[in-house]
């Protein structure tokens, strides 16, 4: 472990009274997290609050003045990697959502090195950086999507399966506990603090690891419960994996939501393994490709809803879910919404998991001819069959010819978070606009051959969840791996892989401001306030999928750097 030391706000809306804040913020308690929306100047958890709406009540930056935005400051964020690393990712990939508390920012780079930044005007510097000392040569995918705050600690989940607590004011490591539970497990998703527990899941499903979600007791520093997304032999759901089938996957590598009123967690579960070879694992393959509701105290399953049984497309459903209040006919109903990687947007009943509605949100869907309006299942789904054949012209089979599948294997929407603005009643998501070609070898294998026959672009899409229908779509030549953040200033902030940061009108999606950073962007934007001013921040840098930067790409990615940076914008 190595720590390097380098060195007022209290109103509910930035345009109101500004008070002086202390140099060190108060403890982050469970009560503060439940009431996170009462601190609009802060960004206390990865999706801002437990609903995961990613909506900021700040409105100092608005659609009337967004054209005046400018770069407030930037910071270079060098990392370190082993000289013999098998991956050409010297700084990892920056995919984290920064956290902000009373003028100080916390985030991790792809190698799990944690930074604290002083955001106060005139300071704008790294206060400390802590390297947890993981063996980087063992890390297959150097990705960290976020941290958590609790009491006076910054909580880090490392790629090699450790939970680490760092002192908030100086970065000193307070504890380091191993939580890895099996081979091939890795950890990339941001953890979530619920009461006195840290909730997180295990990745590595594409390499055969068996997925799980766990609660880590922050008092005893022990695992309180662990729920497995792939059933063990003898469990009733094991029959959904036919005899002799491979049984792996169900990775949980994104961050879910929590409802304090029902004490329920809602989380997305990833694809079964082998990834594209459905013939290796006949059956529905529960609980992969599902949304699950768990009791937060016990980890017991309350309900589940599966989107793509026996999935042969790698359409993980780990992406962010949102608890949103929909108003229709004078009534308000809370729904659990999900932009699935398979190209459809879904509304579910959070109490029962019942399917309510769905609509395609990408320009082209070919893997299925549609969804059953009553069940939400693909119209080709046959519960009596162990091997599902969706749209025949787009379902891969062992030794069969290549098939074109839409949307792309990355999605639709992948790990990057959507947003919801209660003022407009619209949900917003960054998407990939394109298809991919898929071929499965004659013998059982973990992966498949995936390529992009046509250029892949991206969008920012606005969707009316009541109808439901796509309301607006802004199209760009580069994919959107950033997601969206909505504000009371009637703006949506987003970014694209080519390094372009944008502020758009939240109803027309007309770009009101854009800035080319010159470095790849695969991280979400956040909005925060300090000393009476509103700012927008985003992390940049990291590698790019070889499929995206192929010969038919719509832009020249060779002119874009992978430099890790923090960009902050203000008026």
Question: What is the topology?
Answer:
Elements: E1 2-5, H1 30-34, E2 55-56, E3 70-76, E4 93-94, E5 99-101, E6 104-108, E7 114-118, E8 125-131, E9 143-144, E10 148-150, E11 153-157, E12 162-167, E13 173-178, E14 192-194, E15 197-201, E16 212-217, E17 222-228, E18 248-249, E19 257-259, E20 264-268, E21 272-273, E22 290-295, E23 301-306, E24 321-328, E25 331-339, E26 344-348, E27 355-360, E28 403-405, E29 419-421, E30 426-433, E31 436-439, E32 449-451, E33 457-464, E34 469-476, E35 485-487, E36 491-495, E37 500-505, E38 511-516, E39 526-530, E40 533-540, E41 565-570
Parallel strand pairs: 2-35, 4-9
Antiparallel strand pairs: 1-8, 3-41, 5-6, 6-7, 7-8, 10-11, 11-12, 12-13, 14-15, 15-16, 16-17, 18-21, 19-20, 20-22, 22-23, 24-25, 25-26, 26-27, 28-31, 29-30, 30-33, 31-32, 33-34, 35-36, 36-37, 37-38, 39-40, 40-41
């Amino acid at each position: 472990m190595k720590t390097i030391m380098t060195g007022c706000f209290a109103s509910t809306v930035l345009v109101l009274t500004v008070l002086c804040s202390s140099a060190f913020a108060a403890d982050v308690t469970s009560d503060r997290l439940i009431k996170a929306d009462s601190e609009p100047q802060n960004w206390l958890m990865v999706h801002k609050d437990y609903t995961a709406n990613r909506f900021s009540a700040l409105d100092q930056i608005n659609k009337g003045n967004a054209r005046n935005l400018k770069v407030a400051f930037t910071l270079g964020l060098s990392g370190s990697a082993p000289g013999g690393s098998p991956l050409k990712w010297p700084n990892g990939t920056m995919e984290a959502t920064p956290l902000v508390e009373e003028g100080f920012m916390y985030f991790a780079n792809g190698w799990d090195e944690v930074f604290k930044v002083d955001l106060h005007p005139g300071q704008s510097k790294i206060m400390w950086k802590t390297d947890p000392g993981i063996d980087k040569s063992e890390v297959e995918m150097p990705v960290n999507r976020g941290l958590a705050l609790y009491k006076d600690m910054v909580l880090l989940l490392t790629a090699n399966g450790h939970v680490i607590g760092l002192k908030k004011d100086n970065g000193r490591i307070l504890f380091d506990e191993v939580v890895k539970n099996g081979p091939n497990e890795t950890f990339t998703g941001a953890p979530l603090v619920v009461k006195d527990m840290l909730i997180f899941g295990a990745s590595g499903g594409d390499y055969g690891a068996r997925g799980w979600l766990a609660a880590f007791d922050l008092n005893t520093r022990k695992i309180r419960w662990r729920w497995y997304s792939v059933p063990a032999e003898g469990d009733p759901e094991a029959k959904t994996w036919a005899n002799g089938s491979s049984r792996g996957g169900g990775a949980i590598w994104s961050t879910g939501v929590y409802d304090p009123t029902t004490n329920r967690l809602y989380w997305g579960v990833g694809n079964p393994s082998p990834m594209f070879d459905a013939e290796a694992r006949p059956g529905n393959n529960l609980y992969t490709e599902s949304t699950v509701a768990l009791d937060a105290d016990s980890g017991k399953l309350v309900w589940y809803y599966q989107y793509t049984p026996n999935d042969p497309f790698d359409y993980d459903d780990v992406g962010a879910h949102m608890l949103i209040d929909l108003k229709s006919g004078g009534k308000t109903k809370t729904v659990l919404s999900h932009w699935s990687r398979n190209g459809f947007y879904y509304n579910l009943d959070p109490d029962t998991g019942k399917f309510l509605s769905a609509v395609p949100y990408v320009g082209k869907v070919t893997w299925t001819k549609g969804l059953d309006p009553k069940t939400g299942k693909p119209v080709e789904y046959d519960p009596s069959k162990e091997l599902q054949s969706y749209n025949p012209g787009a379902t891969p089979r062992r030794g069969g010819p290549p098939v074109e599948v839409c949307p792309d294997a990355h999605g639709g929407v992948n790990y990057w978070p959507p947003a919801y603005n209660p003022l407009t009643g619209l949900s917003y998501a960054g998407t990939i606009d394109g298809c991919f070609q898929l071929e499965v070898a004659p013998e059982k294998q973990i992966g498949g051959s995936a390529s992009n026959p046509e250029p892949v672009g991206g969008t920012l899409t606005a969707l009316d969840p009541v109808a439901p229908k796509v309301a607006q779509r802004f199209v760009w030549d580069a994919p959107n791996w950033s997601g969206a953040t909505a504000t009371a200033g009637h703006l949506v902030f987003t970014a694209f892989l080519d390094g372009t940061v944008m502020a758009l009108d939240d109803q027309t999606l007309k770009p009101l401001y854009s800035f080319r950073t010159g470095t790849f962007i695969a991280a979400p934007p956040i909005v925060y306030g300090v000393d009476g001013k509103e700012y927008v921040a985003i992390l940049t840098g990291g590698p790019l999928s070889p499929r995206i930067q192929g010969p038919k790409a719509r832009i020249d990615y060779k002119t874009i750097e992978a430099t890790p940076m923090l960009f902050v914008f203000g008026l």
